[in-house]
Specification:
The structure holds three protein chains of three kinds. By secondary structure, chain A is of the alpha/beta class. In chain A, helix 3 crosses helix 4. The radius of gyration of chain A is 21 Å and the shape is globular. Chain B is globular, with a radius of gyration of 24 Å. The two termini of chain B are 27 Å apart. The radius of gyration of chain C is 21 Å and the shape is globular. Helices cover 30% and strands 21% of the residues of chain C. The chains are: A alpha/beta, B mainly alpha, C alpha/beta. At the A-C interface, helix 6, helix 7 and helix 9 of A face helix 7, helix 8, helix 9, helix 10 and helix 11 of C.
């Protein structure tokens, strides 16, 4: 069965023009050769820190940014080959929810108009049908008629995310891109939104492209996880496996950096030294090698290719295939340099 | 979070419920504005001027003289009980002339500002939202216009078109629109990156609709503030043109023209030029104060 | 490590006499303080005047920090943790904010009674603060070196060479290379983590004894956060800097802090040694908070807290958590609970807990 979304070797480079008369140009390698697929009703999480390119991937899938190379195919159709009308039709099947609940809602519009906007834009419904659909969407998102005529600033962050979710569902999409939907919310509010998202996924058969940096959230929501570093996917596989038995040093370092709420588990402070390098001049060879505790000579010159590992997803690393890391960032058994 | 089942849709058509948010915001805005006493006084003054302008035939003590009919027998009389502002070199009641002059003083800036906004705002919105070549083209054109000192440009245009109040209006519109284009374009560029605009694009909302519904409404704030300041400048510009003989022609009761003629009489018959000058001063000051008050209203920090 | 000596009998005299005789209003007699505390906050109440009414932001905060101790101030948005941090340094905007009750005592001196002039002598020199967004905390038109040496020059009275030396030393203490390149960098030229280190360098450059860190890692990536948290621990080890770490991230508190105080709607509902509060919480809010954490649970298993955070202009009477609390009783709706000791150094403000103290303790693992 064709995957709902298939991203193949996606590359997105931005030019930053510098200098007088914009002569010299730096190229930001935001995304370099990213491939993944999402099936109907599945949740794939894109995990990474700033500079990993995960937001750029999301924006490219949403056609807000143009890809430099590679393809994004929705339901088998390559997005770049679509006509204007087909593209518009496609816009209804993929929607997005952004991180900051307040800035993703036009502060001058009422909840009613915000949710009605996509419906009106595609002239799908009007009059009574429109009003009924709006109320239906609000109810799905856990809001009521008393909220209809208020403006975003009168609501809490969690409620604004609900409005954004209701709006995203208006056109009955099959795939929803969630760009850090709960990062700006408190823990208790986050829990409610995650529960809501899960319910909606099951009820409406939605697929999610879930972008997050919070690994605990990823673990609770995702079926599959892909870890990104500096524009590339370094590891990909079933969420439970990637987050419990990571096979890439970066994934391991990421996990080991997350402070655990259990004070007995005194990890969370295993430090990965250095900063994320610039995307304009990424390191040669493996992009992670300057910060990798397990780097070898080959890592400095040759970029590892992203290969499947028997029964354990795929990753891009020169270390032996059997290498598995523990949650403290150290390898578990297996020969390691 | 309580969930209500969507049964009735009738209650939605109640206008007040729909606009409850807007209404309360308007009320709040008025309250914030009212905190600035000077701004309130200024509004009252402007309203008073509007009344004068509209009711000139009834309010002015000597309406025919106000419009220009001379009475040479009473020329150059000092302010008195009969002529509160005195009479001018042709015997006309200065007070009536000032009252009639308020019409020009208010209509000219009103009409020219509308022209400026009609040209400047859409251009700015389109340039900022679409970017690329369109933006480059519009910005270079505005650069050219803005390179000229505005008053010189206005004068040159009037000289080219011929001296008349109408041409002064046209010249002002042509001189002033770039400021607003630039202002709106700047806002559009930053708004384009905001998530709620990105979402609208992903939802398939047409570009024109995005500009009209999402971008331009947010540009209103700075535009209004800029406008209130500019109104004063326009009043002065119109007066200056008339003063230089490029605008209103006698016997039009234009304040700038009155100052111009009053110039030669300034030492002995000071009232001819002074009262129109005072009227200009107070009106411009009033608009500036209103602008200050509006800035407070629009500043989100002052509202809480 | 923690000052767990039972409080002296009798409450510290409130700065402004509490209106009325309501027991919920005055600084509670059981306030969890200890002798030898570096910082002690007792019964602090702060109000803000806003257009919509009076916001009762802090409703009797009690906490203490011992020398060389790291105290975590944990809570969700609106609970008042940042307000508490600002209050210590006297940074609340004066006509809008009013201290209506309670006291803040640092090294035995009352801070609330000090003039602005006296507070300025303390800020940056004895008590320092770092904030959430390092880019906003640094002046973009001055180099990092200039900004740090300005603090040094102000408080240490040195200039030129000695000032530069102290600046380098401060940089080195926070893990930044004390090179000219760093000294002459502008904030935007540094990464997020480096900027936060620079802010900390500013904070400790004059030998502060207490550092208040308001969500210092919230804007940073996870791996950078780990570096900064490790730095905080190192500052305590090597320089003896006591810290109040304000955060909404339970994990951050669990891994860094010696003691933790959980705040809700303007009061501290539970505080004690980290291991105890995290593994054996007593207050219904603390328990519910842990159950909301997604750690190790599938989305379907997540618990949620019904209701929402109260409006602080018109907060619920009595215990502010009672509308959402599964164990609320009648007394909770009228009387504000006072801190009750449940174990050594572990205090909980809850009527139900106080009631059950005789019965076997209700233990819930996070």
């Amino acid at each position: 069965m064709t995957p709902l979304l298939a991203v193949d070797d996606l590359t997105v480079h931005f030019r930053i023009r510098r200098g007088f008369a914009r002569r010299s140009a730096d190229v930001v390698h935001a995304v370099d050769g990213v491939s993944f697929a999402i099936d109907h009703g599945h949740t794939l999480a894109l995990v990474g820190e700033s500079g990993s390119g995960k937001t750029t991937v999301a924006e490219t899938v949403m056609q807000l940014t143009r890809a430099t190379a590679g393809t994004v195919a929705f339901d088998g159709r390559d997005l770049t080959t679509l006509s204007g009308r087909e593209r518009r039709a496609l816009r209804q099947r993929v929607q997005i929810v952004f991180q900051d609940p307040y800035s993703s809602l036009d502060p001058r519009m009422t909840v009613h108009d915000l949710v009605a906007e996509p419906l009106r834009a595609h002239r799908r419904l009007s009059g009574r049908e429109l009003e009924r659909r709006i109320l239906e969407l609000l109810e799905m998102a856990g809001l009521g008629t008393q909220h209809l005529w208020r403006r975003p600033h009168e609501f809490s962050g969690g409620q604004c995310q609900r409005i954004a979710i209701a709006r995203a569902l208006a056109l009955e999409p099959e795939l929803v891109v969630l760009d850090e939907p709960t990062s700006a919310l408190d823990v208790s509010v986050q829990a409610r939104i995650l529960v809501l998202l899960q319910e909606l996924k099951e009820r409406l058969g939605l697929a999610y492209l879930f972008i997050a940096h919070d690994l605990a959230v990823v673990e609770s929501m995702a079926d599959e996880a892909a870890v990104m570093y500096l524009g590339q996917i370094v590891e990909r596989g079933p969420a439970a496996q990637v987050l419990r038995r990571p096979r890439h040093p970066y994934t391991a370092a990421l996990l080991a950096s997350v402070p655990s709420p259990d004070p007995d588990q005194r990890h969370g402070l295993k430090v990965l030294e250095g900063d994320v390098p610039s995307a304009v001049h990424p390191p040669a060879g493996c992009r992670f090698h300057p910060r990798c505790a397990f780097r070898m000579a080959v890592c400095e010159t040759a970029a590892p290719e992203h290969r499947a590992i028997e029964g354990a997803g795929s990753r891009a690393c020169h270390l032996p295939d059997e290498t598995v890391f523990g949650l403290d960032g150290k390898p578990v058994g297996g020969p390691v340099g | 979070m309580s969930v209500t089942t969507p049964t009735q849709t009738r209650g939605l058509s109640d206008w007040r419920v729909r606009h409850a948010a807007s209404l309360s915001e308007w009320r709040h805005s008025v309250r914030v504005f009212a905190r600035d006493r000077l701004a309130v006084i200024a509004v009252v003054w402007i309203a008073f001027m509007v009344v004068l302008a509209v009711g000139a035939p009834v309010i002015a003590p000597y309406p025919s003289q106000g419009q220009g009919q001379p009475d040479v027998s009473i020329r150059l009389q000092a302010p008195s009980a009969h002529h509160l502002f005195g009479t001018d070199e042709l015997g006309r009641d200065v007070l009536s002339r000032v009252v009639y002059g308020s019409r020009i003083a208010l209509v000219m800036p009103f009409v020219t500002m509308i022209g400026v906004l009609l040209i400047g705002i859409p251009l700015g919105g389109i340039a900022g939202y679409f970017g690329g070549l369109v933006d480059e083209a519009v910005m270079r054109v505005t650069d050219v216009f803005l390179a000229f000192p505005s008053l010189i440009l206005t004068m040159a245009l009037v000289a080219f078109l011929g001296a008349s109040l109408r041409n002064v209006g046209i010249a002002i519109v042509v001189t002033w629109w770039p400021w607003y284009t630039r202002l709106v374009r700047g806002m559009a560029v930053s708004l384009r990156q905001r998530p709620f605009v990105k979402v609208a694009r992903t939802m398939g909302v047409a570009d024109l609709r995005i500009i009209l519904r999402h971008i331009l409404p947010h540009a209103f704030g700075p535009v209004i503030v800029q406008m209130t300041v500019d109104v004063g400048t326009v009043i002065l510009a119109v007066a200056a043109m008339s003063f230089l003989g490029l605008g209103a022609k006698p016997p039009t009761p234009d304040w700038g023209l009155m100052i111009s003629t009053g110039q030669s009489y300034i030492l002995q018959q000071w009232w001819i030029g002074t009262f129109p000058g005072l009227a200009i001063f107070l009106l411009v000051l009033a608009f500036n104060l209103v602008g200050d008050g509006l800035r407070d209203v629009l500043d989100p920090r002052m509202r809480r | 490590m923690s000052s767990a000596i039972p409080p002296a009998p009798g409450a510290p005299a409130p700065r402004a006499p509490a209106a009325g005789a309501a027991p919920a209003g005055a600084a509670p007699a059981g306030a969890p303080v200890g002798a030898g505390d570096l910082l002690r906050i007792a019964g602090l109440k702060v109000e803000f005047r806003s257009m919509r009414g009076v916001v009762k932001a802090l409703d009797g905060v009690n906490l203490s920090v011992a020398p060389r101790e790291i105290l975590g101030l944990v809570g969700e948005s609106g609970c008042g943790k940042s307000v508490t941090g600002f209050a210590v340094l006297g940074l609340l905007p004066r006509p809008i904010a009013r201290y209506t009750d309670g006291e803040i005592v640092f090294r035995g001196e009352d801070l609330l009674g000090k003039s602005e002039h006296e507070m300025r002598a303390l800020r940056g020199k004895v008590i320092s603060m770092v904030f959430q967004d390092p880019l906003a905390s640094l002046n973009p038109v001055f180099t990092v070196g200039e900004q740090i040496s300005r603090v040094v020059r102000l408080h240490r009275g040195v200039s030129g060479g000695p000032a530069r030396e102290m600046t380098r030393e401060a940089l080195a203490a926070t893990g930044l290379p004390p090179t000219d390149e760093i000294l002459q960098s502008y904030p935007h030229q540094l990464s997020g983590g480096m900027r936060q280190r620079a802010c900390m360098a500013m904070a400790i450059s004059c030998g502060s004894e207490l550092l208040i860190a308001d969500e210092p890692t919230t804007a940073l990536d996870v791996t950078i956060q780990a570096q900064i948290l490790k730095l905080l621990l190192r500052l305590r080890e090597e320089r003896g800097v006591a810290q109040v770490l304000i955060t909404h991230n339970v994990g951050v508190a669990a891994q860094t802090c010696d003691r933790v105080a959980v705040m809700y709607a303007g009061t501290v509902v539970e505080q004690g040694p980290t291991a105890r509060v995290m593994k054996h919480p007593y207050h219904p809010y603390t328990i519910a908070l842990y159950e909301c954490l997604p750690q190790g649970k599938r989305a379907a298993e997540l618990h949620t807290i019904p209701g929402s955070v109260p409006d602080l202009i018109d907060p619920p009477p009595g215990c502010r958590y009672h509308p959402r609390c599964p164990r609320a009783m009648d007394v909770c709706t009228t009387v504000k609970p006072a801190p009750t000791p449940v174990a050594e150094g572990h205090w909980v403000s809850c009527h139900d807990v106080a009631r059950r103290l005789a019965a076997p303790v209700h233990e819930v693992a996070p």
